[in-house]
Amino acid sequence: MRLWGGRFETGPAEALARLSVSVHFDWRLARYDIAASRAHARVLAAAGLLDPDELGEILAALDDLDVAVETGQFRPTIEDEDVHTALERGLLERLGALGGKLRAGRSRNDQVATDLRLYLRDHARGLAQQIADLAQALTEQAAGHVDTPAPGLTHVQHAQPVVFGHWLLAHVHPLLRDLDRLRDWDVRAAVSPLGAGALAGSGLPLDPPAVAKELGFRESFANSMDAVSDRDFVAEFLFVTALLGVHLSRLGEEVVLWTSHEFGWVELDDAFTTGSSIMPQKKNADIAELARGKAGRLIGGLVSVLTMLKGLPLTYDRDMQEDKEPVFDAIDTLSLVLPALTGMISTMTVRVDRLAKAAPVGFSLATEVADWLVRRSVPFRSAHEITGQLVALCAVRECELDEVSDDDLAKVSPHLTPDVRQVLTVSSALAARTTPGSTGPGPVADQLAVVTEQVQKW
Ligand code: ARG
């Protein structure tokens, strides 16, 4: 049942057949291939290449095949080289010789590119929904912590206090950009290659724009050679999923830290943690770790497709068959990781007491002293220096910044009058941050309102 063979004296060697076969993974494209076949059949009929009866019979057979594929009654065999071969066999089984008419003007080269675009555009919508669900879980957690003080870190060292809701929202913005990227990707992916044939277009009076329209594409190809060579839509999709993977990994890494004994900022729900086969006390953040770990394969998928493409001469080359498994794997991987992360985030408990205790640790209010001096006209360069000396004194004495006596403050600098202590609380540091996008409770509430609306739009 091969789609080729007329010029060959022998059949393919077993080793070739085994290398060449793709039906075990490209079978996922079956229903999209059938949709494209319906559109192609109508165009052949419009061109007078199928009479109305033939069109009716072919469409009925495609519908029947579609159901058989969906219910699993029709399955590919190991003899079928790829999804296109298997489906042509299904059509021939239903229609006899008439089934062979549908291949006119069409090549697997334009077919496979069309099928993969249809498949990815369809699955990108489901992926977007899963991303939006995670964004919503984070946003809902953030809503409960708009004025929960927490330590803010740079270099994993205590830097300046923040509110924990701000931190959680900082993980939502990358996801919103991922959603934007998917939407933007779809605009470029919405070009139909069908009608490009093997590479040269068709000598038959086909109608690529009509096919494009029927299949929900924005337009049809402008260049038949580009149409069958272009895998930008695959590489771009894999970039979006790789970057999403990186975002999920960074979130995962933070949850691993937050749930450690040393931090103890967050407690995960039992249902979203795992235990140990030997240590009865263990409660591990495996979801967070798997999110972090699976970023590797998402990045790998992008690298493998870019590398596969980089040396390919136009137009179609068989190397391109390697474009599918990475995107299928990316979609499968994310559809496991995203719901698990969403469940983990929405059920986690934030340890407000531990966060509050940690917020002023590590002289994290030192910048407040420097800013206070600046408001008193001390140049920031000197203010930084003076505050640094105060920090050094406290480090030696093992005390906090506001525990230094008035005399000692004055010894560090005459600018340091006792009322500097007003700025040495976490709540005053947070309240001072009123500019848009800052971590003060006011701007965070504003930000939350905007983000909530953006998340709900999905
Ligand atoms: N299975 C191939 C692919 O996925 C499509 C077949 C094109 N084959 C060919 N010999 N031109 O890329």
From TrEMBL:
Pathway: Amino-acid biosynthesis; L-arginine biosynthesis; L-arginine from L-ornithine and carbamoyl phosphate: step 3/3. Keywords: Amino-acid biosynthesis, Arginine biosynthesis, Cytoplasm, Lyase. It is found in: Cytoplasm. Its main location: cytoplasm. Its EC number is 4.3.2.1. SUPFAM superfamilies: L-aspartase-like. It comes from the Bacteria. One of its GO terms (molecular function) is argininosuccinate lyase activity. This is Argininosuccinate lyase. It comes from Rhizocola hellebori.
